[in-house]
Amino acid sequence: MLGYPRPFPEQPVESVDNLTVADQRWLNTMTRRLNDTVGSVVAEFDRAIAAFGAPGSAEYVDAYEAFAGHEVGRPRPFLNGLAVGHGRAAGQRAQLPPDG
Fold this sequence. Notes:
By secondary structure, the protein is an all-alpha fold. It has one helix spanning 21-51. The longest helix has 31 residues, at 21-51.
């Protein structure tokens, strides 16, 4: 199982598309949490395979830092840019995390 790369720079300094610096940090944090959860589940599954004496294994590869220096908003990103609008009027900022 392959984890997700960090989508934005570790220390964002400016808004990207209509995402503020705080939004980018929140999305980075959620990506890290998702990766940690997936990694834990894969490790547990791998232990179960071994406990049953079954062939094979489950492996997790943490890719969080894989695109360092090439995140969204960088001059040469490895990720596509974002188009966050969700039907809002042009120029209206999406709010992350969502209210309620």
